[in-house]
Design a protein that fits this description.
CATH class: Mainly Alpha
Distance between the termini: 11 Å
Radius of gyration: 21 Å
Shape: globular
CATH architecture: Up-down Bundle
Low-confidence stretches: 1-8
């Protein structure tokens, strides 16, 4: 089944109100990304605050991402039933509570609970905002706006990289995380007041989602090979950038490359700006050349891990320009992963878009869990074996990051196998 990109515009679509709804949804996602990535910026401070090793410290991000990934399908089902307004506002509320909990946490257990709440709230944001786009905009505008949501929402990383990092250094742990909670609270208020599920007179909710019907919709979504292809594309394309920004980017830049805080801020800011620039380009390519989406995603993945390979084989600390260039390449993984949602949308009817999007979104975050865990595990094993005295020794990072290549290889196999199935069922030009 190929998407129909020439349908006549429906009443209320592409209107001023549609843009207001999209702007509020984008801000909610911007806030969610800031909450999600804040711990990566604070990971060194967290190691001192909680006095824990690399693998235990990774539990903060691991639990957050596990909860996020585990809730994607339930959230997709719930948003099909109750709509984006309720879900996005509830998610922002959970993140508010989670960040306040983390601001006051004194133990690993308290901190992990806080990140679980943040992960749950984050889970209820992206999929639900994504559902607003086809409801409020015409078909040709959906792929570019999907990319725009991803890249502008990911500017929330800048809130973590610059003002949050500055506030963390100046005011300490409690005040900085409390400030982030205030941003999440603002998103909750705006979503409650201004978000609407669809244009007036248009009903996009699946009000017949009983438990039995929910299971049927889920089975239908999973049975569609286009959904599974989206899952594996997201799995393969997203995790490199996600792992970098959520957990290991700051420690790697500080300990393996010897950058100071100011230089790290410049590199991470460039990471975010690359998301913005490349995402807008990829959105246009996806809209005009849907038959090349799989090749595009695999090409991006190959380039990303080539950049990682350059950093890993470079003797000693790489020149700053090389580090900056490699990190900007790694950043492309974030907008490239958005291709997966356009793939899933092409092969699923509107009534199960939320469910299919949730399934796809599990992919990248499942891979992120594996990559975060493997990296921390390798660091701890090397330290326990006496490979180097320092936990975050540069040579230890070479082996730890290299373990992520296994995740990329597994994802690539998944993409190739499911793409073959899609072409067999929907035609050679479908993927």
């Amino acid at each position: 089944m190929r998407p129909n990109r020439s349908r006549p515009r429906q009443p209320g679509k592409d209107s001023l109100r549609a843009h207001v709804v999209f702007a509020i949804g984008t801000f909610a996602y911007f806030s969610a990304v800031a909450q999600r990535t804040s711990f990566g910026v604070a990971s060194v401070d967290a190691a001192e605050r909680f006095g824990t090793a690399a693998s235990a410290l990774s539990m903060f991000s691991l639990m957050q991402v596990l909860v996020y990934a585990g809730l994607q399908v339930p959230v997709g089902v719930l948003v099909d039933r109750f709509g984006s307004r309720v879900m996005v506002a509830a998610g922002a509320g959970l993140m508010t509570v989670g960040q306040l909990q983390l601001a006051l946490a004194d133990s690993v257990a308290e901190g992990v609970v806080a990140r679980v709440l943040v992960g749950a709230g984050d889970a209820a944001t992206f999929v639900c905002v994504m559902r607003l786009i086809p409801a409020w905009f015409s078909a040709l505008r959906v792929p570019p706006l999907t990319q725009f949501l991803g890249v502008v929402g990911n500017l929330g990383q800048l809130l973590s990289v610059i003002p949050f990092a500055w506030l963390l250094d100046l005011g300490g742990w409690t005040s900085s995380f409390t400030a982030l909670a205030a941003v999440a609270l603002l998103a909750a208020v705006l979503s409650t007041a201004l978000l609407r599920n669809a244009p007036p007179g248009v009903d996009v909710l699946n009000r017949e989602l009983s438990l039995r019907r929910t299971g049927q919709v889920l089975r239908e979504s999973v049975a569609e090979p286009g959904t599974r292809l989206g899952f594996w594309v997201h799995f393969t394309a997203q995790f490199a950038g996600n792992t970098f920004v959520l957990m290991w980017g700051y420690p790697y830049l500080a300990y393996a490359q010897g950058l100071d805080d100011r230089a790290i801020s410049v590199v991470m800011t460039s990471f975010v700006l690359t998301n913005l620039a490349v995402g807008l380009i990829l959105g246009g390519l996806t809209a005009r050349r849907p038959q090349h989406r799989v090749r595009l995603s695999l090409s991006v993945t190959a380039v990303i891990f080539t950049a990682w390979a350059v950093l890993l084989v470079w003797p000693g600390e790489a020149p700053s320009a090389v580090v900056l260039g490699a990190v900007c390449v790694i950043a492309v993984s974030m907008p490239a992963s958005m291709i997966a949602f356009d793939i899933a949308r092409s092969f699923n009817p509107p009534q199960r878009t939320g469910t299919a999007t949730g399934i796809v979104n599990v992919g990248g975050f499942a891979a992120t869990v594996l990559a975060i865990f493997l990296t921390g595990l390798v660091l701890d094993l090397l330290a326990a074996a006496g490979f180097r005295e320092e936990l975050y020794a540069p040579d230890s990072f070479r082996f730890a990051v290299a373990a992520q290549f296994l995740v990329a290889a597994a994802g690539t196999v998944g993409v190739l196998l499911t793409a073959r199935r899609v072409r067999r069922e929907h035609g050679s030009g479908a993927a």
